[in-house]
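Sequence in, structure out.
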Amino acid sequence: MRRNATLDALRGYALVCIMLNHIPAGWARQFTLTNFAIYDAAELFVLLSGFLVGLVWVKVEAQSGRRAAQWRFLRRAGQVWLALVAGGVALALTSRGLFALDLGHTAIWSEYARWIVELPLAYVTALAVMWMQPNLLDVLALYVVLLAAAPAVVPLLLRWPLAFAAGSVALWMVAGPLNALLPNQREGNGLLFNPFAWQMLFFSGVAMGAFRHRFMPILRRHAGVLTTLAAGVTLYSLGMAVLWRFGPEGKRLADAMWHAVGVVDKWSLDLVRYTAIMAASWLVAVPLAPLMAWIAASAPGRALATIGRGGLVSFIACVLLSVVGDALGSNLGGAGTAHRAAVDLWVIAALWLVAEVWLNRRRGPVARACDRLPQATVGTVRKHSFQNGLK
């Protein structure tokens, strides 16, 4: 399947935002998504993940049948689960190493560093059965649950989309009590990211990816109205996020806007946050599509796309670099903006490098050289390489 550069860049942007948001002393965190909208990178990551599931599912099912699609995503759920366990171990060991170097940090709970040494088997078991989800990795635990459900649930969505949507909303409405039934180390039980609620955003993304060719021509007939509504919701979300910075008058207006929508809870996928991310999705996909394509084609956009294509490796790297960046940014007394900005740039560059190395791990020297040649010459180089037995 041909890669979509804009989607890859958005996924990379979501991972960079997740990383920077968890570096308390960071400078660049003031420019992440959460500063300009009522939702944040978690919603963006989950929605894009669902969208890509929808894209891939219909492609695989059309080529190889439904059973192949089901097995593909069941295997993917297993891969994400392994990444959750391995990432939890790596997170604890990283924290332990930083403490050994006298580099304190607050991005994650300090007990992980103790448990991995004093109670390693219990710690790994708690990760494996998902009784514990270390902070920064908790959205990955949500992803495991949603992907594991996909083989059984996506066929229902594809066959009865309207009934599925009604059921998804009904499940979201009773998500709180259901989540509390899940055994967990957290007080009150349940996953931090309530899977019974966040399924609505994830499967909205699946539907968008699977049905885009069917519903987009219909929606485009009403593009003017939809764009106006989406812009209104987005501006309201922007006002809630930024007006408090503009003096007492701005704060009073922001408070009134927040009061009008009530309590906005991230962990149970609040309707306000859901509406805001869906409105932004329309703006990005339709009126702002040319701008997004231009950004994705720029040098920063290509770097973000590389991070986005890194998948689980990029996610685990972004979590580990959050902790390292927190330690580096918080332990030099009197460090100013330049130091904090340098740490932010370093972790972003490191995240890009990890993704770049991972993506090119199986590429030979000729393949890498082709990337640097004009497109017209690539076929000739590959032909001669094949004839000479090169790989």
